[in-house]
Amino acid sequence: MSLNNTPSSERTHIGIFGKRNAGKSSIINALTGQNLAIVSDVLGTTTDPVPKTMELLPLGPVVMIDTPGLDDNSSLGNLRIQKAYQILNKTDIALLVVDGSVGMTGEDMQILDRIKSKRIPYLIVMNKADLVPGEARYETLPLKADTDDSSTTSSTNPEIVIWVSSQDNTNIHELKNRIAGLVPDSDSGRRIVADLIHPGEIIVLVVPIDKAAPKGRLILPQQQTIRDILDAGAVSVVVRDTELKETLGKLNPRPSLVITDSQAFEKVGSIVPPEIPLTSFSILFARYKGNLDIVVHGAQAIDTLEEGDDVLISEGCTHHRQCEDIGTVKLPKWLQSYTGKKLNFTFTSGTEFPVDLKKFRLIIHCGGCTLNEREMKYRLKCAGDAQVPMTNYGTAIAYMKGILERSIQVLYRL
Fold first, then answer.
1. How sure is the predictor about 89, in pLDDT bands with cuts at 50, 70 and 90?
2. Measured between alpha carbons, how far is residue 118 from residues 104, 215, 228, 390 in Å?
3. Do 52 and 87 meet the contact criterion of CB atoms below 8 Å apart?
4. Average per-residue pLDDT for the chain
5. Is residue 200 assigned to a domain?
6. Beta 310-314 vs 360-365: how paired, if at all?
7. Residue 325: predicted pLDDT
8. Domain span at residue 395?
9. Is 217 found in the same domain as 147?
10. H helical segments located in 300-330
């Protein structure tokens, strides 16, 4: 896969944090050698987190996230700060940008404490080295906290501090190398489906084309699965659910696996013979992201729902909802039909994920194809901490349609 086509969820997410006018946007421009971020002397130029997908050598494909200054105490500023801190949930590497001519302040230390609490690899980037003369740049800086206590100081570990200048590019190349050294080791053994199949085998992908399907293209999980099948040397046959029965009758040899969109699970399950393994994109991605056992267990909690219970249905991406949207229309309908109970539903999408989950009896999440591993694990941990079962669309649908056991058998046949 071309670096330029690498999905955002597969890229290293680098969050840029700091106070207003510390030079966060200037650092992004210096790292990329492009004027990607607006730079101004006006405080608060960056008002919302702004993700920028790019290639950053020697790292490769990354998402740089420019955030608002975390020292804006206005009512609107507090909302911006809340948004910026949400970015920590998807940040693989954090850069705390500090105005080197001022030094570390109490506010900088508060930001740093947040980063540390999330166990995120980080660097403290002391910007504006061009304004700090000579050896003073490399001396341990006192913590200039908002306090009269002159004993309040903080020594800085030189391994996590680097002095740079976005004006004259001092140490920018070194900063790139230091960031590259913090990139988490990728699990090269993780595959969507390639480890379940063999070269030459026929894999059928069932892709319904309805009002919710994007015009002229396939959605991301379908694209990624096709690519993984090709990388394995197998043959992918993509078909609509309306042509599935006819297609299966023509294939010789029979397919080794059928993968379906969750919405068509019931219809596809009735068409595909029991001897042909069947699963869904959602279930494959739950395994790929390491949460299959959690979502399978979470699906079983559907049977425990009572009248008036609250259910959270959460999308990882934002998209225009159609009249038969799976998250807001089909799933609620199927859940109430299956349970025979009237349930209360809350819907979220994109980065919006409730902080307080205690009122919910069940969380049903999408497959998370647009979320990186860190954010998906964060959401699962939030659910676990609140003791709320969590499953995903495909697993929940398979459970309600009575074909979940069949749908996960192929994942354990190795």
1. confident
2. 20, 39, 32, 21
3. no
4. 83
5. yes
6. parallel
7. 82
8. 290-400
9. no
10. none
